[in-house]
What does this fold into?
Amino acid sequence: MKRFAMTTMVVLAACLLLAPGWAWAAGGGASELVVVADTRIIDNGLMRYVANLYNTDVTLFATWAVVLTAFWGAFLGFLMDFCMKRTGLDLNSRKIVEH
Amino acid sequence: MDTASWLYMYMPIAGVNIFWPGLVLIGFSVGVIGGFFGMGGAWMVTPGLNILGFPMAFAIGTDMAHIAGKSMISTMRHSKFGNVDYKLGLVMLVGTMIGIECGAQIVMYLERLGQIGSVVRWVYVGFLALISWMVFYDYYKAVSKKRAGVVEGEHGTEGITWYKTLHKIRIPPMVHFKHAGFVCSAWLPIFVSFLTGVLAGFLGIGGGLLRMPALVYLIGCPTHIAVGTDLFEVMISGLYGAFTYAIKGRIELVAVFVMLTGAAIGAQIGTVATKYAKGYGIRLAFGIAVVCCMISIVLKQYGFSAPAAVLILSTITLICLYIIKIMFQGAAQELRDKKAGTQAQM
It folds into this structure.
């Protein structure tokens, strides 16, 4: 798991360094469409914050989107790992048989 | 809608009310299938989100972010099984990144020349046909060899062994990929991932569908390692995809979180099921999924969008049930054996 976390960190750091170049190369396509989130009908504070951020600072919104997705994915991964350990199954080894 | 309004969730950015159990179900199904086959599964999620009421512009970006999170969960589980060769994944990442850029540039160049939409779709169909042919031919060859009593592979009978020829290329540096269990020139995975990257960039897909068979047939990974290593790559490319789509304002973050909750459970089932499945079982089910994906694209090309969506959703349901069956049967058997072992010791 330590190795997984370290490898992910290294790759994410590399991705952050290279992201501007990629973003430039992957640009175009659907960029003409402008969507504005309607914050007038949102009661929930957190949702309103997300919608406001989307309207005002899309770069920060994108950063949050990536960070929160990674965080939520990792959190759920650890949580499920905790639950799966309690099933009594051996989750650390397997036999590779092709046919 | 008033009586069952709690079943609907307002998506603040897309501005639509979405049936959230549907999102959980999509996440769960794609988690199961993605964890088992080692791919993102964008071809499954996008039509599903669209059917639930997401505008297409949001469906793709939301799907991309969900795939990144889901692949992270699956990679963590596969990593514990020893199914992820990080060294191979990182080496391939170099080729994949350069390849995707080249593919994207080719598309932009062709776009300047004129309409390429249908060309891209037919190239996609062509490659899916090639992959499915490869998978089924490989299976047929392996079955024939097994019947003839030929066992030559380290992990059992193998059909197509093109990788053995490619491993004979000895251009330095030679690298030992410990988990995958082979030594080859570093240029082989870089070149193969570059090719799959170009195709992924050109076709506008994540690339798991192309990379998984490439890892098996061209690089020589055992199926289980190919699944885990591919998921590691899908995770990285998914995070990058999520960033670029978010910057274009095409992500509905709330939906991503809801889908990930379902995917967390599905990914465990799909990943653990690989433990109880033989490599060829995974390959065969993968081949069937590829054929259905191919037919749905052909249907879409001729304007039959509804039948295409029905086909995709039925495929997801059936494959999902098949994987769940493998997982629960295998787990029950393992627990029975464990219990019998403990009783025998007493």
Notes: Residues 59-87 of chain A form one domain. The helical segments of chain A are 2-25, 45-56, 58-85.
